[in-house]
Amino acid sequence: MTKALEKIMKEVDLLPGEQVQYTIQGDGYFLGTAPILKLIAVFQAMITKLTGGHIRVFIIATNQRVLLANSIAAWCGFRRTKGVNAIALASVAECGWAKATQMCCIHSRVVHLETKTQRHTLVIKKLKDEGLRQFVANLSAVMVANVQGRTST
Q1: 3-class state of residue 94 by DSSP
Q2: DSSP state at residue 31
């Protein structure tokens, strides 16, 4: 568990019997898959970090729900935003991942999660294809169980 995940987990209240199954950290600076856009995002991240800020985005899958957690800080905490959204497992309609490659070596990976009411897309940091496949397999099992148990909303 990274320090950023530990900090965001302090903002999350787990339900009785709830256990974290899978976590993914997103890239809050993403501008696009082109090399120049990725370079600009790295520059923005560096400036934000030098001024005492951060952008952290997480998908946390538990055995009872999916949580979307984010934390944004600027100027050493002078401006701060934190949020946690809970999504019922029964409302998960679709999940998937994609990988874009530019110039044979610059990769961008995206996870999307669609519920009955909204679609969430998150660019992923520091996670390889195998981790993304595991995440999609976990949520796919949830969707299949929802259909078989007729618990989907």
Answers
A1: strand
A2: -
